[in-house]
Amino acid sequence: MDVPVRAPESDPPNTPLSALAAGATRQVDGLLDRVRGHYWTLAPYLAHRVRPVVPPPSVPFSTIVHDPTYGPLEITGHLHERAGADTCAILVHGLGGDAKSYYMIEAAEAALGVGISALRLNLRGADHKTPDYYHAGLTDDLRAACTSAQLAKYRALVLLGYSIGGHVVLRFLTEGAKPRVTSGAAVCPPLAIEASAREIDRPRSLPYRKYLLAGLLEMYRYIAAQRPVPVSVRDAAKIKTIHDWDDQIVAPRFHFDGAEHYWHSASVAPRLGLLCRPTLVVVSRHDPMVAWSSVHPYLERRDAVETVLLDRGGHVGFPPKVQLGVNDSPVRGSVHRQVLEWLVSRRPRA
Questions:
Q1: How many Å apart are CA 132 and CA 223, to the nearest integer?
Q2: Are residues 76 and 126 in the same domain?
Q3: 93 shares a domain with 226
Q4: What is the pTM of this model?
Q5: Is residue 10 a part of any domain in this protein?
């Protein structure tokens, strides 16, 4: 006996009720994605606070940068030397972070794992030793590290920056020839500083803004005990927005005419066409601190930049099995390791 074949069901009717249900589903999915972005931003940081990541063995790093206003300043860090390595990765932290930030330690471990040395660099003031502070477009500290005596033995240098540190790396790579620097990468970098600052200053970003300002104030308090600063520590502690911090603290120190002048002068976004080395940018669609909408207009038509947009992860924090898909064959390991594999693969052959 023939068995009747049931005709395939047609698509659900396009009724107001079905449209409402579809819209609600999209809203729920979007909310869950944003929650996951916050989770991967906060979870690795909190885990490090509870059980700090132990860095691999290192030696102290120190070099001098000559500042036009304050003269010679010491730049410090931690150098992890891999025996026989001819390449060193210079790692640059984000705003309010330092060489001890969890992602810096994890990246140093990953560098050793791919067979190269690593320098966890403190931008000026981040170590609470150098009586000065940095900004997003200041590349002098990174340049001083690249030309330092301790790194002179390395044939090649690769650069990896996180958040604002990624912006510093990108800006540095737009500033002309870089002897021995073979490639660079930025993870979750802002590109147009104004757009990122405005995003952080929105009410929904209050927890992140308070965290950033607390870290900056701690650094500023130390510096104020060493030399004159634009405003008193008491007044600096009253600052509630990134705009006002940049306007009252950063701009006067570096001779900008306010926050907007600083943002427009320092931003790497309009300079990406000047990148002089192979460059990788890794961003997260659900990054709660650097919105994808603020960076993609500057990346979509830049052939000099290889861009990876991840649907999973937050701000410099990612699930352990995320694949970037940028290497010739799948690389097992963290985002740090995959980025470092990419950087190493861009070295010219000896």
A1: 6
A2: yes
A3: no
A4: 0.90
A5: no
